[in-house]
Design a protein that fits this description.
The protein is an alpha+beta fold and 571 residues long. 53% of the residues lie in helices and 18% in strands.
């Protein structure tokens, strides 16, 4: 990956960079949009599937409850028939009355219900008061007495729904007409499962599975999904679901219905792979659209990259010509955009370079002439030193010791002050320069003032800017001790020390004390006089703001200026 990025940034041509940049900037959002569209379609389809499942479950529940309600009403109608119950109660004593009631009233009614209701397969009446079958519908209780449900529901007088090997049935206990508490038999309606459960099998949304169970979760009827393994795995969740609860995992959507009127319920489930089939069509459509967009983008990117890079390549060719020495290459770019401006600027630059070459040639000749003048100028200080030395020795030979001493001090002062033309000197040389200058001033002032030196040996080999202290010492003499009060002998004190990371030079005099405003003008105003402003500016050019010239007044009222420099000189 690093190699690819390095190749893109430093090795690839401008056309390739433009092509790659365009493709990344366009295809990445297009890919994100495609993925987002696919995901949104998937979420919408899943939400639609959930809504459809709920709607189908509610529709199936409604249809089943209608069928159950109708059969409950039918069986209740017969259970409350007082003539049937009264005749059945006395059947052992008067079987002729029972036969007459059956022939005239019960059987026609039962046949009517059987023929008019597609859900009813047959209706049977069982009673312990009947010794043998009578007609088409009345049977002895012994035929049903061995059924499991018989003992369980002897004292339950509501309509009960059961599922057995012979199918689905609804039965209800018949009570004595007089007491309405004494069971005298029961009536049983056998259901046509094909018609009764027809609404379940008519629903085939996404090849769904539907399982109808009784109150004990025993399977009654239903349909399975195509994947047998997933179908078996789904059925394990049936008993765990509350009514009208949706369960979902990576493979299935499972919805439990509400409890039906006969206390049964059913489970409706869908294999998610069926949904994926529909999503595959959406994926194909999305991929095809993205592919067409990608082809169109490639064509447009190639065209734009060629248009933009062609002029840059032209500029590259011009640059190669200039690098070979041809400063007047033929340029014919007429565009006014940034590239056109760069080309025109490059053309102007080439002309300017040619002009500068000619100017430098002329300057070279002038420089060689100036170098000769500089060599001559270097002779002048040496000539001055030599002359002063000659005067000194002649004065000594003629016993003019004072003249010789003054001449020697003057030679020493000029030697340290001029410093062979260099702007940097050492602390030691600067102190020697000041010492020579003060000795000269003592001679010219007839030793009218005193001087005290306090120089630390530490740091005297460190470098500082040249000629910093002389203007301050000159200021102390001309504007300090020369204005001392009558009877007061002038005093100059010069102190040097190396404190932490600083070189500190202090020049004090006992002349008149200056006010703060006068000191500020001296240090900050180039027209303030005394040359101290120049010293301050030179220090600020070389050091940070912690360095500079600062004023000070001692306890014995000596005024001074302190030069504070870092012990490391900035180049």
């Amino acid at each position: 990956m690093k190699k690819m990025i390095s190749w893109y940034l430093y090795s690839a041509s401008i056309r390739k960079k433009l092509t790659i940049s365009y493709l990344v900037l366009i295809l990445v959002p297009l890919l994100i949009l495609g993925v987002y569209s696919y995901r949104l379609s998937y979420d919408n389809l899943m939400e639609q599937t959930r809504a459809t499942m709920i709607s189908n479950v509610q529709s199936i529940s409604s249809a089943l409850n209608n069928n159950i309600q109708r059969e409950n009403e039918n069986i209740r109608y017969f259970a409350y028939n007082s003539d049937l119950r009264d005749t059945l109660r006395h059947a052992l004593e008067d079987q002729s009355s029972l036969a007459l009631t059956l022939n005239n009233m019960v059987e026609p009614t039962l046949w009517y219900f059987i023929t008019s209701d597609d859900n009813i397969k047959f209706i049977s009446i069982y009673s312990p008061y009947v010794a043998q079958s009578m007609g088409d519908f009345v049977f002895p209780i012994t035929e049903e007495k061995d059924r499991i449900w018989y003992e369980q529901h002897q004292n339950d007088f509501k309509t009960q729904w059961i599922y057995e090997e012979d199918g689905i049935s609804a039965y209800r206990v018949l009570l004595d007409a007089n007491t309405s508490s004494q069971p005298i038999g029961f009536i049983k309606i056998q259901i046509q499962p094909e018609n009764f459960l027809d609404t379940i099998f008519q629903t085939s949304y996404l090849e769904n599975g539907i399982v109808l169970v009784d109150a004990e979760n025993n399977e009654i009827s239903g349909t399975s999904i195509l994947d047998t393994e997933v179908d078996l795995q789904t059925r394990k969740y049936f008993a765990k679901l509350e009514p009208m609860t949706l369960y979902e995992d990576d493979r299935i959507l499972l919805l439990s219905s509400d409890i039906l009127l006969n206390e049964w319920k059913f489970y409706y489930y869908i294999d998610k792979s069926e949904i994926s089939t529909q999503l595959y069509e959406i994926y194909q459509s999305t991929a095809m659209i993205m592919g067409l967009c990608g082809i169109l983008i490639l064509l447009l990117v190639g065209l734009l990259s060629h248009m933009l890079s062609s002029r840059i390549l032209t500029l590259k060719k011009y640059a190669e010509e200039v690098s070979k020495g041809n400063l007047h290459p033929a340029m014919s770019v007429k565009s006014e955009d940034e590239i056109g401006i760069v080309v025109q600027s490059f053309h102007n630059m080439a002309n300017r370079i040619d002009q500068m070459i000619q100017e430098n040639y002329e300057l070279g000749k002038a420089k060689r002439a100036e170098e000769l003048k500089v060599l001559q100028a270097k002779i002048n200080p040496h000539f001055l030193y030599n002359c002063l030395s000659s005067i000194k020795w002649k004065a000594i030979r003629n016993n003019q010791d004072e003249i010789g001493e003054i001449t020697g001090l003057l030679a020493k002062f000029y030697r340290t002050a001029l410093n062979d033309g260099r702007q940097v000197t050492t602390v030691k040389n600067e102190l020697e320069n000041i010492t020579a200058y003060i000795e000269l001033q003592l001679r010219t002032h007839d030793n009218s003032f005193d001087v005290v030196y306090d120089f630390s040996e530490d740091g005297q080999n460190l470098e500082i800017p040249n000629f910093l202290l002389q203007p301050i010492v000159e200021n102390a003499i001309q504007h300090g001790i020369e204005y001392c009060e009558m009877g007061v002998r002038g005093l100059i004190k010069i102190v040097y020390c190396h404190e932490e990371n600083y070189l500190v030079f202090s020049i004090y005099n006992n002349g008149p004390i200056l006010g703060q405003e006068e000191v500020r003008k001296i240090l900050e105003n180039p027209n303030g006089g005394y040359g101290l402003y120049n010293v301050q500016e030179r220090i600020h050019m070389r050091y940070d703001t912690s360095c500079g010239v600062f004023s000070d007044i001692t306890k014995n009222n000596m005024i001074g200026f302190i030069v504070k420099l870092r012990d490391t000189l900035k180049e």
